[in-house]
Amino acid sequence: MSLKLSDADFFRLRDFMHAKFGINLAEKRILIEGRLNMMVSKRGYTDFGPYIDDVMRDPTGKEVSVLVSKLTTNFTFFLREEGHYDFLTHKVFPVWKNDGPASIRRIWSAASSSGEEPYSLAMVIANSFANKASRIKIEASDISQYVLDIAKAGVYNGERISKLPPDWVQRYFTKLGEDEYEIKPQLKAMVQYRYFNLNDPAHWATRSYDVIFCRNVMIYFDQATRQALSERLFDALKPGGYLIIGMSETLVNLKTGFKYIQPSVYRREA
Ligand SMILES: C[S@@+](CC[C@H](N)C(=O)[O-])C[C@H]1O[C@@H](n2cnc3c(N)ncnc32)[C@H](O)[C@@H]1O
């Protein structure tokens, strides 16, 4: 039996997701019904109402995390939008190579999903900096505990790593079984994972990062949420730092202090 979302339940779910995560579901009623139907009925609910009550009441946050994973996409892959890694390698890292021995650079993967993005950063850094890679710290965060757990485990199947150069697979993964590859400990140690909600104004660092990857997440947010987020991202960067967004995203309609460098790459100059 297919469950129908009542007007009242649709509105409260839409308002809850918008208020808590900035996720805009105003036009997504059919998507919500489609993506949640099976899971909600399998768990014994005969109506969306009590399920939504339980999600909102759950003190552990686990239910919300599952809901978010269902309603957004965690789609990602290693070296996605490869031009960004080339930009770092050819335009940013050569400058960092002149840093003194005590200097630390920080990169933040701000919607890291299941880890492919921060581990791609770690591989690119390891390739460019060899034994000096520990001077570059990678932080990675997401609102879905589910994907953060996958990221921390760092185990991927052959299909997921198939686009990586074979010598990188050799260097950075341990083959566990027939079709399982685990990120090597030294690469895992380069990435610190944590839960972080980009739509929550609390706990933002200021002037902290040299590079922020905030890719393929703004698409879920409405204009006001994007505006607020872009201001926080600006403040979180050190002067001279770069913001990298998804290649199909833009800051064009937002008022920000960023300088446009090239499509999807922006800089905080001062
Ligand atoms: C499509 S994935 C993008 C992954 C990676 N950045 C990439 O480009 O391949 C979007 C991720 O954004 C996360 N997300 C959605 N809303 C968020 C929020 N308010 N704060 C932090 N992460 C959020 C989702 O959980 C999901 O893992």
Describe the sheet with the most strands.
7 strands, mixed
Helix/strand order: HHHHHEHEHEHEEHEEHEEE
Can you name the CATH architecture of the largest domain?
A: 3-Layer(aba) Sandwich
- How far from one another are the termini? 58 Å
CATH fold topology of the largest domain: Rossmann fold
Number of strands: 10
Low-confidence stretches: none
Please, what is the average pLDDT?
95
The side-by-side strand order for the widest beta sheet comes to 6-2-1-7-8-10-9
Number of domains: 2
Strand percentage, roughly?
Answer: 15-25%
Topology diagram in text:
Layout (H helix, E strand, L loop, with lengths): L6 H15 L7 H14 L5 H10 L4 H10 L11 H14 L8 E5 L6 H14 L6 E7 L2 H9 L1 E3 L8 H7 E5 L2 E4 L1 H4 L2 E5 L13 E6 L8 H14 E9 L13 E4 L2 E3 L3
Parallel strand pairs: 1-2, 1-7, 2-6, 7-8
Antiparallel strand pairs: 3-5, 4-5, 8-10, 9-10
Bound molecules: S-adenosylmethionine.
